[in-house]
Queue: 2 jobs
Job 1
Amino acid sequence: MTAERTATTNSGSSGIQAVLPAVRRSTMATPPDLAARRAAVGTMPRPSPIPGIDISDIRYADVPCVVCTPPEPRGVLVYFHGGGYRLGSAAQFTHFATRLAGATGARVVVVDFRLAPEHPYPAALHDATSVYEQLLTESGVPPIAIGDSAGGGLAAALVVTCIDAEVAVPRGLVLMSPWLDLRCVADSYHSRAATDQLFSHDAARQAADQYLQGHHADDPLASPLIADVAAFPPALLFASTDEVLLDDTVTMASGLARAGVPTTTHFTPGVPHAWPSVHPDRPESAAALDVIARFVRPLATEETT
């Protein structure tokens, strides 16, 4: 990994930032059990990054990112990792990001957004929009947004923010097992409770409380499932038929299709939550990565008008 460097940043107010609520101070201490979980997640064995991909630490708009660049990159993907807004880091998803870069041929920018409860809503969204806006300003071409689990919710919230700010939306949207509704009311929390070993209704409610800290879950910037999606870009969604967040994907896909947004959805049985990024070397993950590549490549190389 190369030494950290800083990309050029804009001065002045941001068009995207102007529509977001102000960043708030946390009202919660970090629970000891969460600190222990973070330590455990940080030491978990992970697949190695694939060779041939340059890995760099770069700050965009003063937000740390891990950037994975293939030879002769075409297009940019901005990637938001999962972890319930309270776990994970960009570095912990480098193994998947290199595979994503290798398969799509695009440069992948993994955003190391701030985590709850130390940094409640909307800190993560401020970080996501700041990085996105700088990438857009530098190239003049909207990146493609991709995220898994809570990162999928963040990617969708980014699109909602762009629409509200009248800023160009991402060229495409890829959501893997997205957590899109922090009200946590979906039937699949109960119907899939016995088959989901990674997430649960109790965990979702706790993570939502730590992220929102009193903010209303029925805000479309927190729960993009309830947003107006008519202006969303082409979307590709994945979900396991065994996971508690299944209904979030089903409902979002239905809403996008009704709004006339080009939408492709893949449901896979017998795989865990967020399997393409969490278990990238599984055959089902390789299949998902191939689908993502076929979705991304035409969008990444599309000429601007």
Job 2
Amino acid sequence: MLSTIEELMSATGVPGAAVGIIHNGQRHTAAAGITNHDHPLPVTADTLFQIGSITKTMTATVAMRFVEAGRLDLDTPIQHYLPQFQLQDETAATQATMRHLLTHMGGWVGDYFENTGAGDDALARYVAKMADLPQQVPLGTLWSYNNAGFSLAGHVLEAIADKPYETIVQEELFDPLGMTMSFFFPGDVMVHRFAVGHTVIESVDGTRSTTVATPWPLARSANAAGAVTATVNDMLDYAQFHLQHGRTNEGKQWLQAATVDAMQRPLAKAGAMASHVGISWLLNEINGIWTVGHGGATNG
């Protein structure tokens, strides 16, 4: 596996990578390269990487915990939980539900990245600014990848729990699954070995060079949409949890099997990313077998 990783890294110009595989119940990891072109350290299975939008599946997983507890209904309008929620389209604002958010069916502008500060009110301030977002297609009619919808979903969880989004995920997901090397905040990440993004720059004479991509951290308002940083070992714990239908590695049923199955059920046709979408998961059918997954990308 290591030689294959190194070949792919060489072909794509990736400075460092960590890979994890679960096969027949056995976990395998491999790591190669360096963490940072400017200040290189060897990448290991304990190196932190930004996982980008895989975070969305974590937001959805916690939301389904709230559903099981009777604290959240996927088909109740968002304004029931956030009466102040507004969009340019009043009809969309009054009718939007968590199901719309978690399946990218909101229909408003989705690539809305606004730094609303580092305080616990970052998501609340972000959602207030969503009042200016225009509707691109009618609510629930067309799948369109929507980062803003997941930031909104994170604030719904905050309103229900009366806690910051990051605390909720820590209590409802990271702690129960033993994900001790998964973080949101740069201050928590920087005391461990972590990888940064890189950009390949091509000069006018055709020569190529690699430089560190900046800025490294995302704004706190993006935490619910894509800001988790984790090790490959923690990501294997997370993958195993879903593969085991909601059972942790310690054998505790933290999410009901029926709930996990419902998250992985095709709910709507998706765009170029996948053939269908479930509750946050992107689904493809290959030779009669459904695959379940999600990618993630950040700066570099």
